[in-house]
Amino acid sequence: MKAIKFQKPGGPEVMQYEDINLDAPEQGQVRLRHTAIGLNYLDTYYRSGAYPLPLPSGLGSEAAGVVEAVGSGVTSLKVGDRVAYGAGPIGAYSQARNMPANRLSKLPDAIKDNIAAAMMLKGMTARYLLRETYKVKAGDTILWHAVAGGVGLIAVQWAKHLGVRVIGTTSTPEKAALAKSFGCDEVIDYTQENVAERVRDLTEGKGVPVVYDGVGQATLNASLDSLSPFGTLVSFGSASGPVKGFDTGVLAAKGSLYLTRPSLNTYVASDAALQANVADLFEVVISGAVKIEVNQTYALGDAVKAHQDLEGRKTTGSTVLLP
Known about the structure:
six-stranded parallel beta sheet; 10 helices; 2 domains; 15 strands; 26% strand; seven-stranded mixed beta sheet; alpha/beta; Rossmann fold; Quinone Oxidoreductase, Chain A, domain 1
């Protein structure tokens, strides 16, 4: 079997495409042959060392595949089942792996493998952000940074399905057009406009009750200045670098604001929470309310190039690695 491994943190070039040996699945595990693997910005945090891992390590938290062997004690899955996952454990960048059976979800016939690999982590992320971290409701107006990314395009559709008005930010006219084609009501080019001022213009000076910010340090002030009093900043990623040295007094000065830094793993820590999240995701995708488009594909062995393009902002929407 082949898998992507890295011995030390660093740039994309630290990843190596290596031969691996795969043991028989242990109790509670199944052996899964991957058919498609999701690429996520989260993967770059682990590879770079921003999120430290015991080394050497694999990469990837999201994939789809077929069960090839079942360990003792597993009754929920059988050989031949199509399954997917989006909440680790890390090691999805591989042709095959052993996985805890209780962290896998059976794929409905209506969802193809490459679509599943592109939607599990990003879709579950959109779901917990919109339905749990801050429960949006019909009539709300929200701000979503990097709206043309994989999570953003899913979240826009889901939010519109819930009756929410979405303001998004992007960096190019092409990405703005893409976001609008997925239902984003207003798109702000943050390289050309003052985001907070534009948000105020679009909300009659009120600001928004919630900002979803996966960018981090670069957008922190714009996010805070876009919020209405008692508003919530949901900082769920750090594509531009982590927020550092934050003075909580700013929250008081800007309107008794709330700041939270959630993670998917916390929201799906229990098996019941995981499957509830996945059930909601499958429902909105099968209904057509949320459409998943794979805009880029790379061979698994070309993971270095995939990471270079992702970090170089050359990708839009979802990207899949093919083993």
